[in-house]
Q: What sequence folds into this?
């Protein structure tokens, strides 16, 4: 194994006018993509007369915190504490994300770097499963959870998340890029299979599992568990927000406030993780 010589950044042969139009296009595209977020932030601070104004305004004219006060009053009237909804959502999200990243990484490592009978067939099944939306597998998942006696528990939502096929596919494809010579060198040094997995493989595929964390976090944070969870004490934050939204016109302000709170957590996770996602893989400068 030899390391490739690191060179400085290559210069792109592009005129100043080309640079200007490129950055102008990217700026317009970025501003257009930010419109829903900007509108949601402003809607959370709009009074009711501005929320129902037609045509709607993008920016709030008379900002107020009354929407958040109404939200607190509504939550105080619930017989299940709002902190319970938060705990349920956080528990399902964290356990689901950590468990899936762990299982997808171990399975992807086995499929990418170990030869065993049926490996290609198993990977073809994983690729085939990507064609089916989660709505298609909802009924089989429910039947499996019912047979296991896990309906109306946290695990009815968490266990299907462990089997998220996109994560396994992503990890397997990234791990194939790791040079076999790097793993062989670790074995020669006396590293066990688990030591190679945790100390060599996982650091080199960090962009992959960080991307997977964001994707699955967003999915589990927004789940309401309907169809699997029936007890009010086990419901998620998304379910509580739906109950507020369905309260009618008078709760439109509180609904805007809770929508801002729900979207703020995934956005914060993405902001702190995006540098890791776009980070170049450590193996990009290695050759067999």
A:
């Amino acid at each position: 194994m030899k390391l490739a010589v690191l060179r400085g950044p290559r210069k792109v042969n592009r005129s100043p006018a080309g640079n200007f139009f490129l950055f102008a296009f990217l700026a317009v595209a970025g501003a257009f993509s930010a419109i829903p977020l900007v509108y949601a932030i402003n809607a959370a601070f709009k009074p009711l007369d501005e929320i129902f104004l037609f045509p709607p305004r993008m920016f709030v004219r008379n900002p107020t915190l009354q929407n958040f006060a109404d939200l607190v009053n509504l939550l105080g009237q619930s017989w299940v504490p709002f902190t319970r909804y938060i705990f349920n959502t956080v528990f399902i999200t964290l356990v689901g994300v950590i468990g899936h990243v762990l299982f997808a990484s171990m399975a992807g490592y086995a499929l990418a770097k170990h030869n065993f009978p049926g490996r290609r067939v198993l990977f073809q099944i994983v690729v085939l499963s990507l064609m089916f939306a989660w709505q298609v597998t909802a009924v089989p998942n429910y039947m499996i959870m019912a047979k296991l006696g896990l309906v109306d528990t946290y695990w009815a939502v968490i266990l299907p998340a462990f089997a998220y096929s996109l994560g396994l596919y992503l990890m397997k494809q990234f791990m194939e890029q790791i040079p076999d010579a790097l793993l062989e060198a670790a074995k020669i040094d006396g590293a066990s299979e688990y030591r190679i997995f945790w100390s060599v493989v996982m650091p080199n595929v960090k962009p992959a599992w960080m991307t997977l964390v964001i994707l699955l976090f967003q999915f589990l944070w927004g789940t309401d568990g309907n169809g699997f969870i029936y007890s009010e004490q086990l419901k998620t934050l998304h379910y509580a927000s739906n109950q507020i939204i369905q309260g009618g016109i008078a709760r439109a302000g509180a609904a805007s406030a809770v929508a801002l709170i729900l979207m703020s957590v995934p956005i914060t996770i993405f902001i702190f993780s995006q540098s890791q996602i776009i980070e170049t893989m450590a193996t990009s400068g290695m050759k067999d």
About this structure: Residues 44-54+61-287 form a domain with the MetI-like fold fold (CATH 1.10.3720.10). The longest strand covers residues 2-3.
